[in-house]
Design goal:
By secondary structure, the protein is of the alpha+beta class. Among the domains are: 58 residues; 82 residues, no CATH class. The chain is built from seven helices and seven strands, in the order βαααααββββαββα. The strands form two sheets. The protein has a four-stranded antiparallel beta sheet with strand order 1-2-3-4. A hairpin with a 2-residue loop joins strand 2 and strand 3. Helix 2 runs antiparallel to helix 3. The longest helix is centred in the first third of the chain and has 21 residues. The radius of gyration is 24 Å and the shape is elongated.
């Protein structure tokens, strides 16, 4: 269990699940991501130009200017390779905890990030299994927030309904059922205020009282 992630958990919360992604699937998804074909084509073109610069007439003068420029032009390739090589560090920093009140997740490469989402703010829970997930027998639990969260994209203020994803876990079916049940019980209890929310909610069979 991630000791630093547990610091976010309240004293009155009970941990129901704690885990990490499947290492093999996590690394494969970091390496074979949508940027791979783009980086491969970009590298093939740029290295072809560099090779032509050395074989052309007056290649020494042309290479003197061309090679530094093309190495800079290969920045998308270096970014992809850097992300793939640092996937092991990213895996080490990734962990998930589910309590009876919220979902907690940690991640990041150099700067480590911690985030949480109360079940009262989650409106949907979905199960996703991509190609690598099916190969390695894992799955992703994807949650959606009922509240729009402020965010900044391209310098503009916007909002997103993103929740927290629990990615590439081996016991995905059990975790999905757990998160789905908690989300339904707590979210419905919050959104269905019968009897002006007394100590016991008589309008919905929720085990969360008080």
């Amino acid at each position: 269990m991630d000791n630093e992630l547990t610091l976010l958990i309240g004293k009155d919360e009970k941990i129901l699940y704690a885990g990490k992604p499947d290492k093999t699937c996590f690394i494969f998804e970091c390496i074979f991501n949508p940027l791979l074909p783009f980086a491969a084509i970009w590298a093939a073109i740029d290295f072809g130009v560099i090779g032509a610069a050395f074989t052309a007439d007056k290649s020494e003068n042309m290479a003197f200017f061309m090679v530094p420029f093309m190495l800079l032009h290969l920045m998308p390739v270096w970014l992809y390779l850097g992300g793939a090589l640092l996937s092991f560090r990213r895996y080490r920093n990734t962990a998930y905890i589910v309590t009876d009140k919220a979902i907690y997740a940690s991640g990041g490469i150099f700067a480590r990030t911690y985030k949480s989402k109360p079940f009262a703010e989650l409106s949907h829970v979905d199960l996703h299994r991509g190609i690598f997930d099916q190969w390695f027998g894992v799955g992703d639990i994807i949650t959606t927030s009922a509240q729009a969260n402020p965010a900044t994209m391209n310098g503009r203020r916007t909002s997103t309904n993103a929740g927290i994803s629990i990615d590439s876990v081996a016991d995905y079916a059990e975790v999905y059922k757990l998160v789905k049940q908690l989300q339904e019980d707590i979210y419905t209890d919050v959104m269905y205020p019968n009897d002006l929310r007394p100590k016991e909610n008589h309008g919905y069979k929720s085990k969360y009282m008080g």
